[in-house]
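Structure ticket #2291
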Amino acid sequence: MKQSLQYLSESLSNYVEDDNVCQAICDKLEAGNFEEEIEFIEVLDEEEVVYLEEILQKELAYAESAQDDTRVQKLETIYQVLF
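Resolution: structure written out below.
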């Protein structure tokens, strides 16, 4: 799995317990052996894409405030692929 998807998986783990959409995204992440971010994005439905966009915005803001440049870079890679 690409390192950016590993960062995404870690970020999603903060939300998975309370949200079925998040759980579905995590299940897809775990089930697939994605070599590229686009491969993962292509298996998401519209509701999951919208959810992921919201989570990525939150996680990017957090990573920026924590000055975690590596996390910002990896999560931005996924965010850019969404659009």
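Closing remark: The first helix runs from residue 3 to 12.
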